[in-house]
From TrEMBL:
Species per Swiss-Prot/TrEMBL record: Drosophila grimshawi (Hawaiian fruit fly)
UniProt cross-references to PROSITE patterns, sorted A to Z: JMJC
Keywords: Cytoplasm
Residue stretches making up the JmjC domain: 95-254
Domain of life according to the entry: Eukaryota
Gene3D superfamilies, A to Z: Cupin
Principal localisation: cytoplasm
Identification of the protein by name: GH16531
Length: 394
């Protein structure tokens, strides 16, 4: 079964859901409350987890990480403030999340039994991430530069809105995050006067609600907007692909361009241009960036010892045959009906409070940065580099 699943995961061109998949990971056999209690027991006052928090009502731009506040609290405090419902309790006016946490950032007791070999990927090397958040916690719409994404829903329910790579969303590299390409569309709180703009994406909008035990397969470069429908916890693993090695060069070029604009700027501009996780990194020098670029050119066939998988080696007819021969709980994610899509947008638009983010960067400068970082521009630069490299070596 695992080898069939692996072949399907590597080759599907549409998102898939495995309903109620029996992975039996030990750390999730109890309740979310008990998982959080194990975390707190293994933690101490000096290493309390840092949560992101932001108001549920928001303005016309996506809820970028730069707009969120940071607060330290125990897992139990998080549950009491954001997840507990009951008589006399007021509904939260903000959401909080502890998300995109790599396995090495969490206590081992909270990870016991997690293993992606049940999907055919025994060589995952514990390179996976956990996502915990209260209702409305969301990730702005984006696509991942690398890998096929396997998402396991452990607790709670999450809404996934997905679009194929060719969907004409407005790409942006601001805020810059290595290996993530965002779009400017705000699916969390679209402005009511702008809903007609979003209607053009309906025919390509795939949607599913992941329940505990469900597994979602997100194909390479599919756009996705993710929102917690209730307090939830999920785990994801990006399967590394050989086809992504060439994109390492693209991402290094983008990084070089963004860093050139960040250099010497105020903290306010840096916080606008860079995602918070990028701010923590020491800005590399031009020579260091070039060294990284040259290593990528020379090492197209390797990635620091990680096993790289080949995708698209099976025809879609063969993939369909595999789908037909696995258990019925595996199904494709459907395109939303026009009515359901409109209802989702209209409901989310009620969160838009009409406020606008403070202007930090000149709008034309922002257009310039995005133009220079566009896939078309990067491909031209890379093509010219290889053309000149070929001439220099003949």
């Amino acid at each position: 079964m695992s080898s069939k699943l692996r072949d399907i995961i590597l080759n599907t061109h549409v998102p898939l859901v495995l309903r109620d998949f029996p992975n039996h990971w030990e750390c999730f056999q109890d309740s979310l409350q008990e998982w959080c209690a194990r975390y707190d027991k293994a933690s101490n006052d000096s290493s309390l987890p840092v949560f992101e928090a932001i108001s549920i009502a928001d303005g016309a731009t996506p809820q970028w990480e730069r707009k969120r506040s940071r607060v330290r609290m125990t897992m139990q405090q998080f549950l009491e403030k954001y997840a507990t419902k009951g008589v006399g309790k007021e509904a939260p006016t903000e959401w909080a999340a502890y998300q995109y946490k790599r396995a090495n950032e969490l206590p081992p007791s909270c990870l016991t039994g997690i293993d992606f070999k049940c999907f055919g990927f025994a060589e995952h090397q514990n390179d996976y991430s956990l996502w915990l958040g209260s209702a409305c916690a969301n990730t702005p719409c984006h696509y991942d530069t690398y890998g096929v994404n396997i998402v396991v829903q452990a607790f709670g329910c999450k809404s996934w809105l997905l679009f194929p790579p060719e969907t004409p969303l407005q790409c942006t590299r601001i805020p810059y995050e290595e290996s993530s390409v965002y779009c400017l569309e705000n699916f969390y709180a679209p402005a009511p006067h702008n809903l007609r703009h979003y209607e053009q994406f309906q025919a390509q909008a795939h949607h599913c609600l992941l329940q505990p035990g469900d597994v979602l397969i997100v194909p390479r470069h599919w756009w996705h907007y993710v929102e917690a429908a209730e307090t939830s916890l999920s785990v994801n693993y990006w399967v590394p692909l050989k086809a992504d090695m060439d994109l390492t060069l693209d991402e290094l070029l983008v990084k070089h361009i963004v860093e050139s604009f960040v250099k010497g700027e105020s903290d306010e501009v840096k916080q606008y241009l860079l995602n918070p996780n990028q701010l923590d990194e020491i800005a590399p020098s031009a020579s260091t960036l070039f060294d990284q670029f040259e290593r990528a050119v020379q090492q197209q066939s390797s990635a620091s010892g990680r096993k790289l998988w080949t995708s698209d080696y099976l025809s879609q007819s063969k993939v369909q045959q595999l789908l037909d021969n696995v258990e019925e709980r595996l199904c494709t994610v459907d395109v939303m009906s026009k009515e359901a899509y409109s209802q989702l947008l209209e409901s989310n638009s009620k969160r838009c409070d009409g406020s606008s983010e403070q202007q930090v960067l000149n709008s034309r400068l922002e257009l310039l940065i995005n133009s220079m970082c566009s896939a078309r521009c990067i491909a031209t630069i890379k093509g010219e580099f290889y053309r000149r490299l070929g001439h220099s070596e003949t």
